[in-house]
Amino acid sequence: MSSQKGRHEEEMGTSETTGKVVVVAVKASRDISRTALVWALTHVVQPGDCIKLLVVIPALSSSKRVWAFSRFTTDCASSNWRSSLGTASDQKVVITKSCSQLVLQLHDFYDPEKIKIRVKILSGSSCGGVAAEAKRVESSWVILDK
Fold first, then answer.
1. Spatial contact of 31 and 105, defined as CB atoms under 8 Å apart
2. Which domains does the chain have, with CATH numbers?
3. What is the pLDDT of residues 16-31, one digit of tens each?
4. pLDDT in tens, 72-93
5. What is the maximal distance between C-alpha atoms in the chain?
6. Cα first-last separation, the chain
């Protein structure tokens, strides 16, 4: 095993995974969209692969549309949702819990013993944050939600 590959596996926390890494990027919201993750699980990922779920919290200037409730089809956004959560740390806790619930709900789509899902939250990422993370983990696929 090359040192490059060993370091990559250590960073991903996937030393038991020998397959490809698939990055799935979604916008942070009260309800994390599951569409892209389900698509990755049903069309791309194979046993031994790892999904890196990137939850992107854009800079404050674009928060109005990002924090919309995903179950609404109109532009009924709660621009105050972000500020009502308090600190960035509080926001990450809520998003992490939402992601954990999402992953638990998807156990019908994959075997957690064969496919690993890792979650990473990118806060205030500038343009190119998803691409930089995909390059860092040497992903085979990058799947963007909406």
1. no
2. 22-144 (3.40.50.620)
3. 447 999 999 999 877 7
4. 333 333 344 444 556 777 888 8
5. 51
6. 37
